[in-house]
Amino acid sequence: MRNNLDELDIRLIEALLADARRTNRDLSQVLGLSESACLARTRALEAKGLIQGYRAVIAFEKIGVFQVWADITLVDERPSTIAAFEEIAVSESEIVAAHVIGEHAQFKLHVVTADFECWQALSERLLGCGDLVRSIRRTLIFRRSRTSDLFPRSVLPLLLRTIDPVLE
Fold this sequence. Notes:
Blueprint: H1 7-18, H2 24-31, H3 35-47, H4 60-63, E1 66-74, H5 79-91, E2 95-100, E3 107-113, H6 116-127, E4 133-141, H7 156-161
Antiparallel strand pairs: 1-3, 1-4, 2-3
Helix pairs in contact: 2-3
C-alpha cells in the first residue's frame, strides 16, 4: 500500500523540517487548520513512519570534533553480508549516518569522533569485523557548507502523488 500525501501533509512536513520546535498551535495557523486537525495529521504521519522523530542539528565543526566520510567496500554484495555490516554500523555510536550505496563501495558512513586516534580505532574495529570489510576509504570533512532537510521544490509534485512503498 502506498502513502498518499496531499498538499497539507507536504506543507506540514516542510514546516516541521524548517523548525521542529513549532507548537501545534503555530503549525495549525500556518496550515489554516484547527489545532485538532493539525495534531491528527501530525500523528497520522508519525504512525505511518513518515515522521520518524524530531532532533537538533548540531554544528559538529564548531565543537572541534574529527569528521570523516568513510566509503566501506565489503568482501561481497550478498544481502547477508550487507545486513551483517549494517548491524555493526548501527551499533557504533560514532557513526552518525550510514547509507547503503552503489558505485565503488557498499556503504557511505558519516563518522564523528573526538580526534584522529579515535577514528583510527573505529576503522580498525570495522576492518576487524570478521570477513565482511575489504577496504575503507576516508575523506576528511573540514566544514559543512550547506545542510538542508527541506524538500527540493522540484520533488514536491512527486510527493503529492505518492510516497515510495519502500518507506512503509
